[in-house]
Fold these 3 entries.
Entry 1:
Amino acid sequence: MTGFKKLIFLQLLSWLIFSALGTYFVALSFDSAVGNAQVGAQSMVTRYIENKTLQDVTPEHIEQALNNGQVFATFVIRDYDGKTVMQVANNAQLPFGVDIVESLFNSIRPQFAVNKSKDIKIEFVINANSQAELFQQALLLMYVISALVAFIPVLYMQTIYRRLNRNVSTTVADVVELYIAQNQQGNSIEADFSTVRLEELGSELAPSFNRLAHFLKAKQEDIQNAAQSIKQEAYKDVVTGLGNRNMFVEYYERHIESAAKKSFGSLAMVRCSELQIINQTRGYQKGDDYIRAVSEIIRHVSGTYTASQVFRVNSSDFAVVLPNVPTKEAEQFGETLQARFTQFQQNQELSSVANTGIVSYETGKPLGELLSVVDNALSMAQSKQANAWHLQRDSDLVNNVSAGFGNQNWRRVIREVIDSKRVKLMMQNIMPVGKNVKAYAEIQSRFTTEDGQMLPTASFLAMAEKLDMAVDIDKLIIETSLELIKTRNFNEKFFGMNVTASSAHNDQFVIWLERRLLKEVNLSAKLIFEVSEFGLQQNIKASRRFIDMVHRVGARITVERFGVGLTSFKFFRDLKPDFIKMDASYTRGLEEDKNNQYFMRLMVDLAHRIGVSVFAEGVESQEEKHIVETLCLDGVQGYYIEKPKEI
């Protein structure tokens, strides 16, 4: 295309040059023709006045002699003294183009004829219109001929170029179609085109198309590598670096459920029992550290088994695949894990670390069915003791009753805890910021088995909620707390107790609590009941009823884990809580997070306007405590201030 444009430019330039030269030579011809006409006219006039006297030269004679005056543009007769005797003028104008040429060459000039003997002197200028017409015709003809000579080859070349371009396009399209058909069957691009068929279409194109094929193959490999890298990053857990649930599902479907070769092994599900409590009391950074530590323990223990795989399938659960490991060896795996978790628990001063459920698997077993069984095993382990494990055998699944086996065991354990009142109370103070601020100590609960082993608190409360036993647990905690406060004679202290949303929204519980607190009028004023923001949002009408009752008996309300939901301050103005406790996620890295600082400052200002005090929980460092104090919060709680201790 560039060469064709260059051809057009050269042809146009040639035509311009040729036209300029032709114009010049035609102008020379016009000048020569005008000059000859002027010489002829001078000879004619000289002969005319040769035998004439001044009296004989009359206008009538001149008009007759000069062919009606069309020969001359001007004709002036003077006597010998130069006096004008007669003047004839024709005002015909030359065409514009001819006028320019005439002015450049000065072709038309005044001519003179003299007869001294007769005292006649004549000055004239010829009329060159006929020569001008010939000049214009010659010039137009020259332009047309030169244009045809210049541009007919261009038009012809353009036609050839278009035809050639269509042929090349058709050939390339056929080659591309051939290449697509050649690579349509497999997933990988062939490095070379089909040489035999390509030779038929155009052998000159073969090297270029083969270079293109190699380039496409290299690009395909780059894309596949990039996709694999992206997939690995997408399937990787950020905190632990392990594969996530998507990678676990893909691994199980490829290597176990749909494996061509028959295989067997054990699947263990490890659940971190203290994650929620650590997040709430120590902050999310400590929660991430806890998860990383558990993952390292699991990787270290499972690393002794050949081809073992570890995945983090959700925030608190790890899946461990132990290929070719029978149930006997899986039991040893559970024992080793429990020992390592117990050691970690003692070092970190935790009530528990994690529980493990174990089941066996074989090729072709659906993942959903296996996860249901291992979840039951995990529920059984959680109901035993801290860091316990449980292996669900096939013999336990007789008559397909396994679906509720774990729940039934949990129900039995929770009922035993309630009947035996096996609840252990801990206390963690909220430190007031400022002299006039009133704070309190939060009562926290721990539950034990018949053997005195500590049960995982988060799992215990979650199962109580799931089995509709949360109301009984809340009653047990409140009764035990009231008795303890009375026996210890804590007259000067204020105490906070957690109440689940399901209990707060239960009419029978609200009636029971009101009657119970009316019996302890002196204690009621020292009690603060904590309910989560999310729980209060579930039923605003029931939440308002519960808060009104608490205020009626003289107690107070704290909205805990504030900031996690999307509650408006109109909601708080209507419910009128006494305190809000900011979620621990807002204090994590507070000294560096300007957004959290701004949000907490805004919450404090708005809360103080409606008479609500604001506490921060999860304070783990001096820097966080300092920032909280500068933000004008009313109190701080966390492991940096005080760890939970037995009452």
Note: Residues 2-134 form one domain.
Entry 2:
Amino acid sequence: MKYKIFKYIAGCFSLAIVTTSCVNNEDLLQVDPNVATADSFWKTDQDAIEGVNAAYGSLLTDGTYMRSTPLLLDLKGDDTRSNSPWDAMYNVGRFNSNVSNSAIYGWAYETYYQGIYRANQVLTNVPKIEMTDAALKSRILGQAYFLRGLYLFHAVNMFKSVPLPTEIAVYYPQKTNEEGWAQVIADFKAAADLLPASYTSVTGLDAGQKGRATKGAALGYLGKAYLFTKDFEKAKTTFKQVIDLGVYSLVANYRDNFTDTNENNSESLFEVQFSRAAGGVDLGWGGAPASGWGKTSARAITYAPRAFGWTDVQPTWTLYNEFHDELTTSGAVDPRLDATMFYNKPGVKLYGQDFATFYAKNAGDLNDLFCRKYENSDGNYANEYDWRSGINERLLRYSDVLLMYAECLNETGDTPGAYTYIQMVRSRVGLPNLSTAKPGMNQVAMREQIGHERFLEFPLEGHRFDDIRRWGWLQNSTKLAWLKSRDVEFNSYATGREFFPIPQLEMDNNPGTVQNDGY
């Protein structure tokens, strides 16, 4: 990984002057007093917090959660499908991303390292500042460790063997996947040691501010990193720490996790903050921030139902059917179905329109499935064509912690204990007691049950393919055949394609970089 720093020096010198004068090079390098530099910027408490705010800013652009990262996380799962006319998007779910065209995945890769670079600036410069608020200093460093860990988490998880910048340098050599996970774990551990459980009781420039990384967020991602590397004992201990904080609880209404009406709620460990009211009206496509940029997301228009947006992502019929496998205790269909997707059901409305009436003249749409999560579809907006969704992206929810903890209990020999934490998630949506419905499951049966529970709790949230990959289903011929029967996009899977290719620009700029297998 190579970073280039460009210094623009304004001047107009004739050839005669350049060749005859005795002016030294140092005399020509003048510092513009109106432009902040690294040497002049990192001086105060305010500088420190603005520096870490810039690291958060990399979560808001197209490469990350404005659009690209949700697409990359969602499209390879058996809960989604894509018929996008854009080949770069269409091919993600078909495991056919093109090495010569890095659109979408390359933008994500670039932005992760932009965020890492910004976090490294904080970690390099803030310790040198004689801050008036020592506790604030610790919190800022904790947030920088968390953000670096989060960006590295995505890079290591999605691109396998990547550079691991932990300081500001020119070149960063490619590291192994194992080394990558070790660094992710180290960053989240450092963050957890420095961060508060919340910002409601702190004083200083960040007091009471929502959206900043907390101890619970760092521990949650630390546990997730342990789980992804199959260190179930450490993952179990870490998830229990999150539970024991006593900060988090499931919200009563499942859908409240995907609208702009109940953001930063008790179930959310960490979410990306979008807002229609903040900043300008332009979308942050990437690069240096511009004054007109807003803080809005393009996810909604990308996933929106036909005629309300681009419909580049849709739920699968496999997902729809699996929601009908088990009725609630009142005999109803799992309410998460209606919170997840639109379909032709009496009374279903979208953007103030009756579904059946709106699509009556188009049988294909009338009998199709469309995304509802993260859509501004409850009647306040006519469609998503302004590209400006203000719905926060929930990256880590407490229900995920509960189900991951249950998985760890099962993998460490306490299968009976897993029932309790699975049931906490099931009870929220009125599903029967699992210990009565399926008593006495062994470890293998419980693994399958956890796969089912996670499939229905987290569709369209970027978790399903991570689960498929970490469970080794793509290397299991029986499971792979099962996935193909559920989602035809798996028919084009080839070994190694569970990871994205290293972008060609990285290959060109970082000599010695080895491309991922399968490309």
Note: The longest strand covers residues 268-272.
Entry 3:
Amino acid sequence: MTVALASFVRTSGDVSSLDLVIGGARCGGCLAKIENGLRSQPDVTEARMNLSTARLHVAWHGAADRADGFAQNLQDMGFSAGPYIPDIADAADRAQSRKLLLAMAAAAFGLMNVMILSIAVWSGGSEMSAATQSLLHWLSAAIALPIAAFSGRPFFASAWQALRAKTTNMDVPISLAIILACGLSLWETWQGQEHTYFDAALMLVFLLLVGRVLDARLRARTGLAARQLAALQVHNARRITDDNRVETVPTTELAPGDIVVVASGERIPADGVVISGESRLDAALVTGETALQKVGPGDALYSGTINHGAPLTLEIHKASADSFLADITAMVEAGQQTQARYVRLADRAARAYVPVVHSLALLTFVGWLIAGGTPRTAIINAIAVLIITCPCALGLAVPAVQVVAVGRLFAKGVLIRSGDALERLATVRHVVFDKTGTLTQGRIRADVSAIPAPDLALISALSRHSTHPASVALHEFETAASALEVEEVSGQGLRGQVSGHAVRLGQARFVGGVSFDRPGLWARIDAQDPLQIILADPIRGEAQETVNALRAANLTLSIVSGDAAETVENVGDALGIDQVTARVEPAEKLTHISALQNRGIPVLMVGDGLNDAPALAHADASAALVSGTEISRAASDIVLQGDTLAGLPFAIQVARAAKRRVVENFALAIGYNMLAVPLAIFGYVTPLIAALAMSASSLIVTLNALRMRRVGDYEGPSHPGQNERIKKGKAAL
């Protein structure tokens, strides 16, 4: 190892973690081998790889110096490993893409020239002399052999790395097919035979490189979402030291309790709370709202949001690796590589590929010899079997669909958190909604239309001395008055002196002059008649449209809430949801979902609060708003950005479409092999035709996956400038 990985290890208590970039991992079989190999190591608690970005996350109990040992384990498996540094990883990806493009261009150049010579041989027929034919074959060899050696390096290097590690991968039979085709053609040329297969060898190399280039583009497109989020992360922060100096440090060094200064126009480096300063914040990353929000002492701020206005001083509550933006980025990356049932099926097929293909090729060779065929014929048919059985179509069947689906959802403000979320989301038949903060805005609003403006100013001044939700609802009303001698009676209300008036705010019994059984919030100024303040939690503006869309998708709906029956029933009536359950504890929500599941009904739970977490984790699929609690986001399969439910019907639509595309792709890949393999075994397919057929199957599967880009016409919320960045990214790709 040339780089000591211990310096890149993050520690939290006795848990160490490290992100590595892996070289040589090409398929789901490689991914399973890497993850399972590391998980089998002592004290390793997590090994999760994103095949699209080649990023491996490893966590373990113990010292940081074990990192080099994990890298050695990966090398023993046949994979290279180095520290994952986003900028360096992106540069390496671009360099690799350039190498693939150069190799593909060289293969295309050689193929065109060899095909011209081959056409001359075919068209010459019996009229061409043996000497001329031999000359053309030798010219083909002079072109094909060096180009096959140059352009085939990605396959040869991968195969050699696997063989050195005493294992195999899909590049082993591919390399064998290229070498055998070139070797047989050279032998045929030496023997003065009529036919050679230099064109087939170069065709195979070229078409496989086309697949690798497309795969690289798909990987780049998949990683685009994560890179866009990474671009929002701050690399440096200005931290205040114990002796009141300001030092610039990498955000990775920030720890809870640190004090940082954020100037106007800068992004918040990590999650924290304002301790001094008042400003306006662009929090569209969290809320989807483009309007700036007022922030001041005591307000919580999330990483990635932008300070517009005066400088702010923050106390950091979370390290950058555990921040809101890091959490969202991790969700995107987790969604790009799934381990769903279909993926596991494809992985098992890919792992069985090498022994099955080698056995088929060997049996084809032996079978033709037993049947009386010449060694030359037996070798040609065995090579055709090696080429035509390349599992590119099967390997692309699931990832190609998921890459497009996850990218489509991200562009519309829907983040996939768990690996098999798309598959499970496609099966749901019933949706359970929490009420407060999910179907409603979760912010109490006060109706003060019946209260005179002078009285409202006095009441608002008193309310500012409490953080109770009912008092907070009155903070928005302007007042120039100040409250003195304020006393808050727990569970009752506030009282104090405001501009020479005795003002009370709270329950009816507390303010006096009102029947004790009158509910709601009341205020009283001096000895005047009490004033009633109507409080309500308004229904979300998009809730009705979301409910209608879900019902149109043949889903049944219900509301399960801990609120009072009358409040929950009012929301149900307003939205047209008949199945309503009120006054339930968190454990009872879980029981409600279990009852539906026991009846064979897959359930989608939608919530946002701490009390929803058990139900979110227990449901077949779950969704949370990005503005919900951290625990609710962590327990959910998908996260809806922009603080809106509007993306939920679209997510279900995309999930169902993705399931159909995966099944179609499996059918196409299996059908291709069932038709093509027998033809190759019985000698009806030449190596050239085999290369064309293999490429065509992969292209069909990829084009079928790209149909996902046209699913739905929903135009939902997105990050500021996100759609523009995605358009630029697509143009660059």
Note: The chain has a mean pLDDT of 78.
